[in-house]
Design brief:
single chain; alpha/beta; five-stranded mixed β-sheet; Nucleotidyltransferase, domain 5; 3 helices
Length: 137
């Protein structure tokens, strides 16, 4: 028994992708435009300060630099000192320069805990005038 097919040598059906791409791009365009309209910030009419308005005629005092070397020694003017001498130097510096700052330059190989501990000791003496120096690339 032989069955006859409707077509001899029929071809594979072809799917037309153009309408599918049109719909996809239309939906994508809609979402892009919708997201742009949702993220717009209202523009405020604000007069921003210029760089000339904030220039100070007063010179800043040089900061007091305290070092911490890999041997965990406190250095003041490249000489090892103990915690009491460091505290005395910070107090005398801040007494002479009330707006001065004290900077800690710690070696990068030191453990973070050691640096924070010394920074805490310095803040106990110098208050908010103490900061940690960072390397700039």
């Amino acid at each position: 028994m032989r069955f006859k097919h409707g077509r001899q040598g029929s071809e594979m059906p072809v799917i037309n992708l153009v309408p599918l791409l049109d719909v996809t791009l239309t939906v994508l365009t809609f979402f892009v435009l919708a997201s742009l309209s949702l993220t717009r910030q209202p523009v405020l009419n604000v007069n921003l300060p210029s760089t000339q308005a904030g220039v100070s005629q007063q010179e800043m005092a040089d900061p007091l630099v305290i070092g911490l070397n890999p041997g965990n020694q406190i250095l003041l003017k490249n000489r090892p000192v103990d915690s009491a001498q460091m505290a005395q130097a910070i107090q005398s510096y801040l007494g002479q320069n009330p707006k001065g700052t004290v900077v800690l330059q710690a070696d990068r190989t030191l453990a973070y805990q050691e640096v924070v501990q010394l920074l805490g000791e310095m803040r106990a003496v110098g208050g908010d005038r103490v900061s940690l120096a960072l390397e700039q690339n």
